[in-house]
Amino acid sequence: GAGVSQSPSNKVTEKGKDVELRCDPISGHTALYWYRQSLGQGLEFLIYFQGNSAPDKSGLPSDRFSAERTGGSVSTLTIQRTQQEDSAVYLCASSPTGVGTDTQYFGPGTRLTVL
Amino acid sequence: GDSVTQMEGPVTLSEEAFLTINCTYTATGYPSLFWYVQYPGEGLQLLLKATKADDKGSNKGFEATYRKETTSFHLEKGSVQVSDSAVYFCALTAGAQKLVFGQGTRLTINP
């Protein structure tokens, strides 16, 4: 079946602008995750959703970052007032139930460049 | 907190060589352990996993054994191919559902 999809694949924005990144998880997966991959920091966890709730937001780097999930499906990660240090590849993953033994399936990522 | 330490890269080998990429972890409780791979121009995908001590994960000729006594999950392959060139990430989940990743090891196989 279809995998995790993300849009846009690339986003170039100016410092100070807001951006929205979208994730469509695998159908039926209740758990959804956002990660960020950058040269300096490697792969970092941002936020985890179980259904529409976010029991773990511990990785969001500042209050400029927020995320929501609706209908137990699509999720949007919003970055307000973007800064150059926000430049990274933002990865979304989903898993069937959210237990620790689950495999997380990753999307292709959104490459964000802040000028 | 939970952490994963991987062998520093990059690693360069000749085709048919034996591969080991070391991975050790620190975690509370009983983590599940994973190896993910990122091929050039592609997304992150699961290579193998093990969810309890002494389990061996295997896929595409790669193997890794969950060793609780040494807190390790080393990745091995007996005979690498050019197509194995990629970045390999060791990771764990422990209690929390999030994946905690090592820094990644870039592997290049020369023909």
Index terms:
heterodimer; A: about 120 residues; mainly beta; 7-stranded mixed β-sheet; 4-stranded antiparallel β-sheet; about 0% helix; globular; B: about 110 residues; 6-stranded mixed β-sheet; 12 strands
Describe the structure.
The complex is a heterodimer of chains A (115) and B (111). With 115 residues, chain A is mainly beta. Helices cover 0% and strands 51% of the residues of chain A. Chain A contains no helices and 11 strands. Chain A has strands at 5-7, 10-13, 19-24, 31-38, 42-50, 53-56, 65-69, 75-79, 88-95, 105-106, 110-114. In chain A, strands 2, 4, 5, 6, 9, 10 and 11 form a 7-stranded mixed sheet that branches. A 4-stranded antiparallel sheet of chain A has the order 1-3-8-7, with no helix packed on it. The model of chain A has no long low-confidence stretch (mean pLDDT 95). By secondary structure, chain B is mostly beta strands. In chain B, strands 2, 5, 6, 10, 11 and 12 form a 6-stranded mixed sheet that branches. Chain B has a 4-stranded antiparallel sheet with strand order 3-9-8-7, with no helix packed on it. Chain B has a two-stranded antiparallel sheet with strand order 1-4. The chains are: A mainly beta (115), B mainly beta (111). Chains A and B meet through strand 4, strand 5, strand 9 and strand 10 of A and strand 5, strand 6, strand 10 and strand 11 of B.
